[in-house]
Specification:
The structure is a single chain. The protein is α/β, with parallel strands linked by helices. It has helices at about 15-25, 40-45, 60-70, 85-95, 170-175, 195, 210-225, 250-265, 340, 355-360, 380-395, 400-405, and strands at about 10, 30-35, 105, 110-115, 130-140, 140-150, 150-155, 180-185, 200-205, 230, 270, 275-280, 290-295, 295-305, 305-310, 365-370. The radius of gyration is 22 Å and the shape is globular. The structure holds flavin-adenine dinucleotide (FAD). Flavin-adenine dinucleotide (FAD) binds near residues 36, 111, 371 and 381.
Length: about 425
């Protein structure tokens, strides 16, 4: 039988995992949180120099806010736009140091395996009553086993970037030249300046990460005149990347598109729309050649020094092999979210409110929340994750009524268009 005094285990100390912990504190429920990085908010620190497009008002979880205020810790101004590192330094860190949180947060602790005690995946009888077991790698060598009565996977996707290849498969060549590929958003104006200045740099991708990278590179080009910027994207229509611009309810998100449009208009970036990469190969003098096709024609882009891969990320299910979990076959998101967030159907970045019911997994008391719940879909927002955490924790702690009452008002992107799915009888759009 599950021992009800066992804690709820949270995997991942990003903003959504930490929000789940704050919700558990609010409900007087024991928790234990494992974070693989050496501090919480590891992924936000990876792009600590990037300014978020949503102001603090949308970036702080309600239960976390209550806890901070209880300890007289003042909150940042609601309308200020934080940097990635501010999310950690001004919010997650002070929160995680509070006496209700600190003893239960384990950093340098990577979860390697989650299972059910005494049960492999196949065995059913008595399964729901068995505690979860969690195998954790602590530091470099030590391994520890913990037990829990529920498990919340909030591990995000950032650490598993998609490869450059259009088919989504990593090729041997991509591995071979990986020293010249940066997966993520480099700090090209400061920390990583020497790597990119006066180089031919190709940026691959068309989401917010790519826009941030391109804007910074354009700044670098102003400072160092021999920097050349090449932009490779699969989208045919570049204007789709600009988003809602002035119509976006988050002005900073809209301005990203407008700033990119201005830079393109000035000819500072050479763009290759409709380009699908087939391979990357090393060339003479340490350069790279990018081979692909554009509008059915073969296309080779030569003489590249560095590639910045902003092609999105995908969830890691490796450590969940013995857990009964399901995911959408295309997006790898939680199945019930697929129709709400499918980028083939929705152009908008907002999504209908959802909670425990939509996030429920075949394994009782196991949930995937946060950006991982969106799988490969790119439009996740913190406010969505906080409401997921609130609803799931309400359900786990027996407050079914509160779990069902999902409330979420997200700022519209200003570009909501719905492409109907041929076979779907009805698809709800976030802008309905
Ligand atoms: C550049 C960028 C800008 C963004 N800007 C905004 C914005 O302005 N507004 C907004 O609302 N959203 C924004 N987002 C989207 C979203 O808020 C972030 O992706 C956010 O980090 C998601 O939080 P999370 O807690 O789900 O995942 P993450 O922050 O990715 O946290 C996951 C954590 O799990 C840990 N982990 C992973 N595997 C394991 C394991 N096996 N064991 C233990 N720990 C593990 C990681 O180290 C990490 O700390 C942005 C995203 C990006 C990439």
């Amino acid at each position: 039988m599950i021992n009800s005094t066992l804690p709820v285990a949270i995997i991942g100390g990003g903003p959504v995992g930490i929000a789940a912990a704050a919700q558990l504190v609010k409900r007087n429920e024991a928790f234990i949180l494992f974070e693989s990085g050496k501090e919480i908010g590891t992924n936000f620190l990876d792009y600590g120099h990037v300014r978020l497009f949503s102001p603090w008002e949308y970036n702080i979880d309600d239960a976390a806010k209550e806890l901070l205020l209880k300890h007289h810790i003042s909150l940042p101004p609601k309308d200020e736009l934080p940097l990635g590192e501010d999310i950690v330094c001004k919010y997650l860190k002070p929160l995680s140091q509070l006496p209700e949180m600190k003893p239960y947060i384990h950093v340098n602790s990577r979860v390697l395996h989650v299972g059910k005690k005494g049960f492999d995946k196949v065995k059913t009888k008595g399964r729901d009553q068995a505690p979860f077991i969690i195998r954790v790698k602590v530091g470099n060598n030590e391994e520890k086993i913990y037990e829990a009565k529920a498990v919340i996977d909030a591990t995000g996707t950032w650490q598993n970037p998609n490869p450059l290849n259009a088919e989504g498969l990593i090729t041997n060549n991509e591995i071979r030249v990986s020293d010249q590929i940066y997966y993520g958003i480099p700090d090209v104006l400061n920390r990583d300046k020497d790597r990119f200045k006066n180089k031919n740099v190709a940026v691959v991708g068309s989401g917010h990460s790519a826009i941030n990278t391109l804007l910074d590179l354009a700044q670098l080009k102003k400072q160092t005149e021999n920097t050349e910027i090449i932009w490779i994207l699969r989208k045919q229509d570049i204007t789709e990347v600009f988003g809602g611009e002035g119509n976006d309810q988050l002005p900073a998100r809209g301005q990203l598109g407008t700033r990119l449009r201005n830079i393109l208009d000035k000819g500072e970036i050479k763009a290759y729309p409709s380009m699908f990469i087939e391979s990357i190969s090393p060339a003479f003098g340490g350069k790279l050649n990018i081979l692909g096709h554009q509008q059915q024609e073969h296309k080779m882009i030569n003489n590249i020094d560095e590639i910045i891969a902003n092609t999105g990320a995908r969830p890691d299910f490796q450590f969940l092999k013995e857990i009964r979990h399901s995911f959408d076959s295309a997006l790898e998101c939680v199945p019930d979210l697929a129709d709400l967030i499918d980028p083939n159907i929705h152009s908008c970045g907002t999504v209908r409110p959802h909670g425990e019911k939509e996030l429920r997994q075949p394994e009782k008391n196991f949930y995937i929340i946060g950006s991982k719940s969106y799988g490969r879909a790119p439009t996740f927002l913190l406010a969505t994750g906080y409401e997921q955490a609130r609803s799931v924790i309400a359900y786990i702690t027996g407050d079914r009524e509160s779990a069902q009452q999902v409330k979420l008002k997200l700022p519209e992107t200003g570009v909501c268009k719905l492409t109907p799915k041929p076979s779907a009888a009805k698809t709800s759009c976030c802008c309905d």
